[in-house]
Design brief:
Length: 934
C-alpha cells in the first residue's frame, strides 16, 4: 500500500496473521479501543459528531428511576430460569477448595423468559444452526413496571453508574462475609423515558449496556426486547422493533442478581454506563472494526483492518469505506492532519445481512505503543467513514496502538523487542467505598498508585472489566491479562456462572474479545480461573480446547491461557492453551509440615516440571503470594522465617480479626512476597507475577469471614499504602532511591521489650540507629529482600536507617515516637476537579500530635462537612472489620488515617471547602476548586 499523503484503493485480499506456534511466533497486533464504545470522548459521555454523520451515541445515564422488588413481591413471572435451591448458606469455604458438580434442576412446567433472552446473543454464535429463534408471541406477562403510563414518581431517582447495594447497611452477622456483608441479591427495576424525534424514523436504535448485575431483561413500551444474564459483560439490545419515533418510549430494565453468585462482592444494579446508539440502516456493526499490524519495525508498520458492515434495510446497498489514520496526543486527542487515508473497493451488502471490508496501508517511522516506564504508550486514531451512494451514512472513531509482542519460553515476554518482566497485580472490580459503580477517576487513582509502586501489568480477576478501565490502561501504558470466567460447568458457589455456562460461554467469550481485542494494553486472553475442570481430565481439556478455539477465531494475534492452581504438567488441560499460568504452584502449596496428612491441595514447587514439559511455552504466575496484613497493625512475636501461615499468636488475632503488618504472613496455600521473589529469581525463565492482590477488595475476607473485606491487598480498601507496598517498590523500582522502616515507633507498653525492626530498601545494605546508637550494618544476603534487626529493644525516640548501594549512601528514612493526638491534618490528591458530578477528590485525614508526627494507633472519630458546590460521596478507613456504612459522614480513623471522597455538584464551579473535626483535636480543612467542564 502507498503511504499517505497519496490515497489508495485497498484490495480485498489482505492476509491476517495466524497465531502459529507460540515458541516461534512474534505476536504482532495493532490494537485499539473498541470503536466508539470506548473512544476517549465517549468515555467522558460525549462523542465528536461530524455534520453529515448519521451515527449518534448518547449517554443514557441520567434521570433513571429505581426500586427494589417485583410488583406485588411476586418474581415468578420474571424468572430467566429455574435455579437450584440453596438449603443453607455457608461461608468461609477455602478459596482453593475443589469446585463441585452442578446440581440437577427440574424445569418441567415452569414458564421462563429464557427463550426471549437467548436470541440477544445470536450475533456471537458462529454456527447459524445453533442460534436461537424468538418465540412468535411475547411472553404472557402483564409487567406493570414496564408500561409507559406507570407512575414511578415514588421511586428513587438515580444517576448511572449505580450500585444500589454499596450504601448498606452491612450484614454484621450470618454467613455473608464472602460477598462483602452487603446484600446484593434480589430483583431491582430501573425505568427511564426515551424520547425519539420524527427524524429518527428509519434509523436503527440500540441500547448499549456496559455492564448490569445481573440477569438483565430489557423491556420497551411493555414488551420484552431481550437481555443478558452475565453481569460483567457489555451487551447490545436492538430497540428498533419496539420503539416509536416521534414519541416518548419507556425503557425498563429488570435485574435479578442471585445470592451466593460469587466468592467476592459482585455489586448490584446498572453499575456501568448505558448508551443509546442511533445509526442509519447501513452501519458499522457492534465492535465491528478490527485492526492488526502484520509487519512492524522502527522504520515502518503495515496497518491492516477489517470493518464489518450491517445492513438493517430492506434492500441491498452498495457501500465503500474510507479509513483515515491520525495521531493521538497523551490525553487521547487527535492532532494534525491524517497520516494515511485509504478508500476500500465498493461492496454490496444484502438486506438483513453483514459484509466485511478489508484495507491496509503502511506508516513510516511509526510511534509505538509500549508499557511505562521504559517505553511510551503512543496511540493513533482510525476514523472509519461509511458511504452509501457517495453519501456518508456512518462514522466511527477508534483509538489504537502499534506494537509487537513476542512470547519466548526461555526468555519471557517481549514488547517491541524489549524483554518486559511482568510486575503485575490482580484486582477485583469494586472501587472500595464506591462499590462496583465504575468511576474513571477512582480507577485512575488506583492505577497511579500501582505505577508509583513499579507495577506494569494488571490481571482482570476474574471477569471482563469496564471498557473505560482498558482506555486507562491504554493511555497509561499498563499491560493487561483480560479474563472472562471464574467458573465453567463446575460451581464454586451454588449460583455462580456455571448455571449459564452451557448456554452462554460462546456469546460471552466472543463478545468480550470483540469489544477488547482493539486495546494495545491487552496482551493475552485468560479463558478461566482455577476452574473445576482441572479435575476432570480429558473432559475438562475438551472445554478448554473449545474456548481456546473461539478465542483464536476472534483474535489470532494474542495467546490464550487459563489460571491453574491444581492442574499438573502431565494432565491434558495445560496443553490446550498457549501460555502456562500458575496460581501459587510455582512456589509450592502447603509445604509446611502441619499440612502433611491433610486432604488439602499440597503441591511441591512446579516451575521446573512445567518448564520441562513445555519448554517453548511462557510460564507466568497469574496469582502469587496472597499475603495478609492489616495496615498499621503489628503483633508480637515476629515469625523468624521469611513466610508463614496465619494463626493466633502467629501473625493473626481471631478476636480482633486482624493480621500483622510485618508482611511475613499469607493464606495457607500462599506465600509471603519474599518467598515469591526467591522462587522467581531461582527460575529466571518465568515471565513474572501477578500478585494477589493490588488493593484490598470487598468480600472473601480470608482468614476472618466475620469481616467485610479482604486482607491481601498491597494497598488497603481506602487506598492507603501498607508496608508491603514498599517491599514491592524496592524490588520493582530498583533505581528509585528509597528506604522504609517498620513498625511505627510508638509503643509505650513495650519499653525494654524486643520489638523487631525491618527495613525495605532498593539499596543492598543498611545501618540502623535507635536514638543515634547503631544497631549494626547489614547487607542483603542472596535471595533475601529485606533487612531485619530482630533483637531491637523498644525505647521511645527515633529509629533511623541509612541505606547503601555499592558502598555509597543511597537513601535515608526515620520514624519517631508520637505524643498524644492533638490535631487533624487534611490533604487532597487533587485540589482541582471537573464540575461534572463524576470527577473525584480523595481527601486524606491524618491524626497528628502537637509536633505534627502521625499518631499511628489513633482511632478518634472524624466528621466531614462540605461547603460550596460539592458533596461527600463516601468515607472509609481501610479497616476490614468496620461496618459503618460507606455514605456516612462520620467515621473512626483506623491507625491514624481516614478518607473522604468528594465530588462537585453537576454543572457547578467554584470553591469547595472540606472541613474535618474530631472531639478534642484541632480541626483541619482543604479547599478544592470545581472547574467548568471543558
Amino acid at each position: 500500500m502507498t503511504p499517505y499523503p497519496h490515497t489508495s484503493t485497498a484490495s480485498d485480499k489482505q492476509t491476517w496473521p495466524s497465531l502459529g506456534t507460540v515458541a516461534a511466533v512474534s505476536f504482532i497486533a495493532v490494537t485499539f479501543g473498541a470503536a466508539l464504545q470506548s473512544a476517549p470522548a465517549a468515555a467522558q459521555g460525549a462523542t465528536r459528531q461530524a455534520p453529515q454523520q448519521a451515527r449518534e451515541r448518547i449517554s443514557f445515564n441520567d434521570g433513571w428511576r429505581f426500586t427494589l422488588g417485583d410488583p406485588g413481591g411476586d418474581s415468578t413471572p420474571y424468572l430467566y430460569d429455574v435455579r437450584p435451591e440453596v438449603a443453607k448458606s455457608a461461608d468461609g469455604k477455602d478459596a482453593d477448595a475443589r469446585p463441585d458438580q452442578a446440581a440437577k434442576v427440574d424445569r418441567a412446567g415452569v414458564p421462563l423468559l429464557k427463550p426471549w433472552i437467548l436470541p440477544s446473543g445470536n450475533a456471537f454464535i458462529k454456527d447459524p444452526s445453533r442460534r436461537h429463534t424468538r418465540p412468535a408471541a411475547d411472553p404472557a406477562i402483564d409487567a406493570p413496571y414496564a408500561r409507559l403510563g406507570f407512575d414511578d414518581s415514588a421511586w428513587t431517582q438515580v444517576r448511572l453508574p449505580h450500585d444500589w447495594a454499596i450504601a448498606g447497611p452491612f450484614l454484621e452477622t450470618g454467613p455473608y462475609g464472602g460477598m462483602g456483608r452487603l446484600k446484593t441479591w434480589g430483583p431491582a427495576w430501573y425505568r427511564k423515558t426515551l424520547d425519539l424525534s420524527a427524524a429518527d424514523r428509519g434509523k436503527s436504535i440500540f441500547l448499549d449496556v456496559d455492564g448490569a448485575m445481573a440477569y438483565a431483561s430489557v423491556w420497551v413500551n411493555g414488551r420484552l426486547a431481550g437481555g443478558w444474564p452475565y453481569g460483567y459483560n457489555s451487551f447490545r439490545i436492538d430497540l428498533t422493533p419496539y420503539v416509536t419515533p416521534g414519541a416518548s418510549n419507556q425503557v425498563a430494565i429488570r435485574l435479578d442478581n442471585t445470592p451466593e453468585s460469587a466468592r467476592w462482592y459482585p455489586g448490584a444494579g446498572l453499575y456501568r454506563n448505558v448508551w443509546i446508539t442511533k445509526t442509519a440502516p447501513l452501519h458499522v456493526g457492534q465492535w465491528g472494526v478490527q485492526l492488526t499490524t502484520p509487519q512492524v519495525s522502527k522504520e515502518s508498520a503495515q496497518v491492516a483492518w477489517r470493518v464489518t458492515l450491517d445492513n438493517r434495510g430492506a434492500a441491498p446497498v452498495k457501500a465503500d469505506v474510507v479509513t483515515e489514520l491520525l495521531v493521538l496526543d497523551a490525553q487521547g486527542k487527535a492532532t494534525g492532519a491524517p497520516v494515511a487515508r485509504v478508500t476500500s473497493a465498493a461492496t454490496t451488502v444484502a438486506p438483513g445481512a453483514s459484509a466485511s471490508v478489508k484495507g491496509a496501508t503502511t506508516l513510516a517511522k511509526p510511534r509505538l505503543w509500549g508499557p511505562l516506564p521504559t517505553q511510551q504508550p503512543h496511540r493513533y486514531l482510525a476514523v472509519t467513514i461509511v458511504r452509501q451512494d457517495g453519501r456518508v451514512v456512518d462514522r466511527v472513531e477508534t483509538p489504537f496502538g502499534i506494537r509487537t509482542l513476542r512470547f519466548d519460553g526461555k526468555e519471557g515476554v517481549f514488547v517491541n523487542g524489549e524483554k518486559i518482566a511482568l510486575r503485575g497485580v490482580n484486582n477485583h472490580h469494586d472501587l472500595g467505598a464506591l462499590g462496583s459503580a465504575f468511576n474513571v477517576r477512582a480507577a485512575e487513582r488506583q492505577l497511579e498508585l500501582l505505577q508509583q509502586m513499579g507495577a506494569n501489568a494488571l490481571r482482570m480477576s476474574h471477569n471482563p472489566p469496564d471498557p473505560q478501565l482498558l482506555e486507562l490502561t491504554d493511555r497509561m501504558g499498563i499491560l493487561v491479562v483480560d479474563e472472562v470466567f471464574d467458573s465453567w460447568q463446575r460451581k464454586k458457589t451454588p449460583l455462580d456462572f456455571h448455571l449459564i455456562f452451557d448456554d452462554w460461554h460462546e456469546q460471552d467469550l466472543r463478545s468480550m474479545i470483540r469489544r477488547d481485542r482493539n486495546h494495545p494494553s491487552v496482551i493475552m486472553w485468560s479463558i478461566g480461573n482455577e476452574v473445576g475442570e482441572q479435575y476432570t481430565d480429558a473432559d475438562g481439556a475438551a472445554i478448554a480446547r473449545r474456548l481456546h478455539g473461539i478465542a483464536r477465531e476472534e483474535d489470532p494475534t494474542r495467546p490464550t491461557t487459563t489460571a491453574m492452581n491444581y492442574a499438573k504438567p502431565d494432565m491434558p488441560l495445560p496443553a490446550e492453551v498457549d501460555l502456562i499460568s500458575l496460581n501459587y504452584q510455582g512456589e509450592g502449596i502447603r509445604q509446611d509440615p502441619e499440612f502433611e496428612g491433610t486432604d488439602r491441595i499440597r503441591t511441591p514447587p512446579q516451575y521446573p516440571a512445567f518448564h520441562a514439559k513445555f519448554p517453548d511455552k511462557v510460564i507466568l504466575t497469574s496469582e502469587s503470594a496472597s499475603a495478609f496484613s492489616s495496615r498499621g497493625v503489628y503483633f508480637f512475636p515476629v515469625h523468624p522465617a521469611n513466610s508463614s501461615i496465619v494463626r493466633d499468636g502467629r501473625g493473626g488475632d481471631s478476636k480482633l480479626q486482624q493480621v500483622s503488618s510485618y508482611e511475613l504472613y499469607a493464606v495457607d496455600f500462599g506465600s509471603s512476597a519474599d518467598k515469591v521473589f526467591s522462587a522467581l529469581d531461582r527460575h529466571p525463565y518465568v515471565a513474572g507475577e501477578f500478585v494477589w492482590t493490588g488493593f484490598d477488595y470487598l468480600g472473601e475476607p480470608t482468614p476472618y469471614y466475620g469481616a467485610r473485606s479482604s486482607y491481601t491487598g498491597i494497598i488497603d480498601l481506602a487506598g492507603f499504602k501498607k508496608d508491603r507496598y514498599y517491599l514491592y517498590q524496592s524490588r520493582w523500582r530498583p533505581d528509585h532511591k528509597m528506604a522504609h522502616i517498620l513498625p511505627h515507633w510508638t509503643w509505650p507498653e513495650r519499653v525494654g521489650q524486643v520489638t523487631p525492626v525491618h527495613v525495605f530498601t532498593s539499596g543492598d545494605e543498611a545501618e540502623l540507629f535507635v536514638n543515634g546508637k547503631s544497631q549494626g550494618r547489614k547487607k542483603k544476603a542472596p535471595l533475601t529482600y529485606r533487612l531485619r534487626w530482630d533483637e531491637v529493644k523498644y525505647e521511645p525516640g527515633e529509629v533511623r536507617v541509612v541505606s547503601y548501594r555499592n558502598g555509597k549512601e543511597w537513601a535515608r528514612a526515620s520514624v519517631k515516637t508520637a505524643g498524644a493526638a492533638a490535631a487533624l491534618q487534611a490533604s487532597a490528591d487533587r485540589t482541582t476537579i471537573d464540575g461534572d458530578g463524576r470527577d473525584l477528590s480523595f481527601v486524606t485525614v491524618r491524626i497528628a500530635d502537637k509536633a505534627g508526627i502521625d499518631v499511628p494507633r489513633s482511632m478518634q472519630r472524624v466528621r466531614f462537612t462540605v461547603e460550596g458546590p460539592g458533596e461527600l460521596v463516601a468515607t472509609d478507613n481501610g479497616d476490614p472489620t468496620s461496618f459503618e456504612p460507606f455514605p456516612s459522614s462520620e467515621r473512626a480513623a483506623f491507625n491514624g488515617l481516614v478518607l473522604g471522597i468528594v465530588r462537585a455538584t453537576p454543572g457547578a464551579s467554584g470553591p469547595i471547602t472540606v472541613r474535618v473535626t474530631a472531639d478534642g483535636l484541632a480541626p483541619a480543612s482543604v479547599t478544592l476548586q470545581a472547574r467548568p467542564r471543558q
